[in-house]
Amino acid sequence: MGEEPVTYDVRFSGTSGLAGTVRDGDGGWPVEGALIVVTDVRGEVPATVKSDHEGAFSVPELPAGDLTVAVDASGRRPTALPVQISGPGVTRVEVRLLSGAQVQGVAHRTAARGLRDELQPGRPGRHRGHRRHPARGARHPGRPGRPTAARRLTVR
Known about the structure:
single chain; mainly beta; Immunoglobulin-like; 2 domains; 3-stranded mixed β-sheet; 1 helix; carbohydrate binding; Carb-bd-like_fold; Major facilitator superfamily permease
């Protein structure tokens, strides 16, 4: 290889670990089945685990260094927090997940327009699928005589 230095990235298996609990941010109840993803500074994922019925999780054998712990659970807002594994032993964290919003319903649209136009607030004369009639200036939904189609809208 000549006289040029060769660079290698070496990763040692760690004797450190991470353990913690995932709790509801509103009442402090344990969150079962939360997905915990641990990433390092390079964006690599050394571990992915789920919380148990008590909200507890454990990740053994992590290398020392700065990590990010991202946590997500159904019906709650995801969160991420920085964690520093400094040496041998187990680093403990407690994660609080706040309740998330879930909106379900049916949005109606005319056959000539897309759903996108109906969901854009702040557009005069077009908010919530209304248009101004060019001759009268009155507001009415869609165009008269055009069939409407329903689309299910789910936002999580």
